Amino acid sequence: MINCTLKPSPEPSNTEALAGIVVAALKGYGVEVDVVRAVDLNIAPGVETDMGKGDEWPGVHEKLLAAKILVIASPTWVGRPSSVAQRVLERMDAMISETDEDGRPVAYNRVAGVVVTGNEDGAHHVISEIDGALGDIGYTIPGQAWTYWHLGPGPGPNYLDEQRGHDWAASTGRAMASSLFHTAQALAAHPVPAPPS
């Protein structure tokens, strides 16, 4: 899971709190989960896997290649994914041209989903932007592989400060985890081959 909050550790992250529901559900299926808080890393701008000295993205890239399931978690700011989420997706762009030993894009046969928090109505837009990018990169996006929490348009309390809507977001998060896990199992049993030339 890549948490794209703007808040550095150890500041509490509303986005990580909601994503924790998905993480717990995945662990319930026996999935080993690693959480990366991208804002804590020096992730240089660019669209290459390694942008040189001091760039900490290559370590995240290694984790992506080791994982069969990816969750991108982002707050909503001005109706858009966070700037950190955009940076992560830009760096993942390099994966489009990377292939495995069978000629498949490296993201093939990996699944991905999205978690969104925010105080304005824009969660579905943020989900579609992130899902669209992940699909371009080569990830499989299962049906309903998302959850979100917000209290409608305008300013309001944060996820950690308000209990309204938590039950729905948690139930949807558990459904998301099920979708991700079972689709990953199906792809492991029946991998998508390299694209025809």
From TrEMBL:
Gene3D superfamilies: 3.40.50.360
GO MF entries: oxidoreductase activity
InterPro entries: Flavoprotein-like_sf, FMN_Rdtase-like_dom
NADPH-dependent FMN reductase-like domain segment(s): 9-126
Record-given protein name: Flavodoxin family protein
